[in-house]
Amino acid sequence: MSIYKDYIKEIEERKVQGLHPKPIDGSSLISEIIKQIKDIDNEYREDSLNFFIYNVLPGTTSAAGVKAKFLKEIILGEFVLKEISPSFAFEQLGHMKGGPSVEVLLDLALGNDISIANEAAKVLKTQVFLYEADTEQLEKAYKAGNTIAKELIESYAQAEFFTKLPEIEEEIEIVTFVAGIGDISTDLLSPGADAHSRSDRELHGQSMFEHNKEMQKELLALKEKHPNKRVMLIADKGTMGVGSSRMSGVNNVALWTGISSSPYVPFINIAPVIAGTNGIAPIFLTTVGVTGGIGIDLKNWVKQKDADGNTIVDEEGEAILKEEYSVATGTVFTINTKTKQLFKGDKVVKDISTALTPPKKEFIKAGGSYAVVFGKKLQSFACKVLGIDVPQVYAVSKEVSIEGQGLTAVEKIFNKNAVGTTPGKTLHAGSNVRVEVNIVGSQDTTGLMTSQELEMMAATVISPIVDTGYQSGCHTASVWDDKSRANIPRLMKFMNDFGLVTARHPEGKYHAMTDVIHKVLNDIAVDDWDVIIGGDSHTRMAKGVAFGADSGTVALALATGEATMPIPESVKVTFKGEMKSYMDFRDVVHATQEQMLNQFEGENVFQGKIIEVHIGTLTSDQAFTFTDWTAEMKAKASICISEDDTLIESLEISRDRIQIMIDKGMDNPKQDLKGLVDKANNRIQEIKTGTKSALKPDADAKYYAEVVIDLDKIVEPMIADPDVNNEDVSKRYTHDNIQPLSFYGGIKKVDLGFVGSCMVHKGDMQILAQMLKNVEAQKGEVEFKAPLVVAPPTYNIVDELKAEGDWEVLEKYAGFVFDDSAPKAVARTKYENKLYLERPGCSLCMGNQEKAEPGDTVMATSTRLFQGRVVRDTDAKKGESLLSSTPVVVLSCILGRTPTMEEYEAAVEGIVLTKFKPSQKQLVM
Length: 925
Fold this sequence. Notes:
38% helix, six-stranded parallel beta sheet, seven-stranded mixed beta sheet, alpha/beta, 31 helices
């Protein structure tokens, strides 16, 4: 059977699912389609024409290369086709986003046929995805006196590819659709369990609202009722897009409510309008910008104040909110992009200036942030060739400089890594800055989209200014099923060819690593002044400043070595008092959130800010527990301020772990990992010699807020509770509900425990082993009254535990031990009351492969407590995911319920938990 007939068979199968033909990205299929187009009598010719014109993915896909070559033949008259004229062929090339299409257009523009050259130049003037090979060819022709090349470069210098675009509408009519009450997780928009289908945009679109067909029908009915209005998706009384960055979530919203990016590229929509009472989660808002969308902070519910300005609370001490204006589904508003206001009829209900800043309006006009980033780069190239200053076409980057004011840690990092700013100018929070990126991480369930984004922006190799890129395999570690076997090797080959260090080698030259990506990035970040971008919200390193990002921003960082964002304001977190001997550092993390909320009357001052945590004495392994949780605090990012000796120890640990990766054969041909070892050694020497001490803020830096955490107040283990039965729906599934252990009275049934995810480190595995030994010593045996699933974060932790004897202890009590030679092919759905030693990776925390049994109450060390993430509901009982420390999880599984304080203290007696003492040194400059 031919590849075309296989494609037709697949189309018939997709029809059953209500799907259209899958977009074509392979050269073999498009080559056969072209052959059928050339055969006038071919029975498939008409369908083949439609597939060729309307169903080929653009950029550097192998299909795009074949398509571009055929369009060139048509333009040159080498093949005459009545359905595709030369002018239509040029139009097609203009929608193919660079790579082979730009190569063809440049060849035509710089060729000898003046008529064709002029037509090609017209199209090229609209293109922005030109890379070094393209610009070098253009510059060479310009210097040789080619008039078309001169015309093109002059056009690029004036950024006509941007200035000649239509201006954005002054008024945009919208109609509301409330997707939920309270915080809306990106899982609602793009469920983790459907991660395998994210690169198939139409198929993945069916997962919107977690496959809730009734909600999907309501949305379609609303669109039909308001055909000339845009739909605004809303989180009422909450924040939109908490949790992961999820480019796939924005893609789904755009697919259902947005605008088609091109008539010739299927299922790629842009420009969604998204809103929340408390705005949009920071990294999700960045993702909205990638697509040229609009994200609005509605503030339609506000706290009530008394005459003295104090917040009015109810009997339970909760702030009383008043609805300033309704956003109920079906409400019609108007966005005025000129006045930057939201209108309801003739009345202004909200100033939305922050949603329509000059840079964001440029993203809207250009159809997304990529075009603006590449446009600026292309304009700079052209002006350099012409020897002229860059004309002010784009909005001037906002530069905030306050004389006499010191710098926070993040301000220092941004100033060091900034490019294109006014020379000698010191920048403070609020400035919009392009920064060079040192480390880029891509994870496996978004990596397929990242590879697509790279193809569509015509990138073929990682930027030389990036220290290294890493492609993980942790999100698909639990189950090596048919979906993983089909997707992951293909992803690893693409990323390996692109220049990244990959968890799996395409040819199997080293053992496949399923290490949790955040842990790997935390190790390979070897400078406290680094900027790290990663395709996951938990990209929050304990060295440098790290930003979780969508798959598109990751692609942009890989391709250009840069990221653009405002310098966020910072919140300073310091500590006082002394930890109780029986407390774990995880309890400090949760208590930080609780005490912050108490100090600021329930206002989350961390949201959208940098948390500058003066951790001082904890190494990066342990400190990562804090920085990791800052995603749940809704912070933009976090920075650890360490003592010099502590940072040296952290860098030595990182250097040695990178060397292990090298010894396993994981380094790439450029020897990026060796470069990181050298960089770590250099940084260690700088600190030891006093040349450049550990990063510290200035003593006179200005903060949005300052929070002091009193360790003396932490007298019980602290648990983040989803509060699934709260009468106020908006207060369910928020990480802000922190309860002490005694809240549960030692009687709450626990159905399953999970120790794993990025929140644990080697010390947690050692605590687990010691607790099991203690129980056996006390009771003669270890009996679990609830299943305990354990997933070490990395293989190096497993290796270290084996060398030190603790892994042997865990295996002794385990009823299941992972086997890499025979990985699970099917997700576990039932659990026995025993210990499961799972493969290193995300495991239950991700929720895309394995879950707890529906309706379970789960006690876990992980990060997510959203509805359906770790455990689904049943008709009889809502699933609960309570988040706590390792000793609480382990003891809960041994007891089958939450422990009392007496039971807890007895269980951890003599065990060294993660200790923390506030630094006694000045951690400021």
